[in-house]
């Protein structure tokens, strides 16, 4: 595999980790709010919605970068005569 393919593979791994880190961060925030019972307070709802929107935007960006990195990895793998990889996010 070319240097580009190897680098893209490393990028893909890092971006996949970033995606799941953001997802778990979002999941933890929602669980904590529900556990405390604050989901019915208007201020908390506003802050929560803004936080979740921000985290989801970051997650969306990570998914896009991961997809782009996967394309680069697959181009390098195909050029090297290897099967492309499948990415499940």
Structure description:
By secondary structure, the protein is mainly alpha-helical. The protein has one domain. The chain is 81% helix and 0% strand. The protein is rod-shaped and about 55 Å long. The mean pLDDT is 76.
Could you provide a short overview of the structure?
This protein is mainly alpha-helical.
The parts where pLDDT drops under 50 for at least 5 residues are none
Integer tally of domains? 1
Instruction: Give helix and strand order, one letter per element, not per position.
Output: HH
Name the shape in a single word.
rod-shaped
* Helix vs. strand class: mainly alpha
Summarize the main sheet.
none
How many strands appear in the DSSP assignment?
A: 0
Compute the separation of the termini in Å.
Answer: 24 Å
Q: Count every helix, treating DSSP H or I runs of 4 or more residues as helices.
A: 2
Please tell me how large the radius of gyration is. Answer: 18 Å
Which percent bin holds the helix content? over 70%
Strand proportion? under 5%
Overall pLDDT level? 76
Keywords for this entry:
0% strand, mainly alpha, 2 helices, 89 residues, single chain
Topology (elements, then pairings):
Layout: H1 3-36, H2 42-79
Helix pairs in contact: 1-2
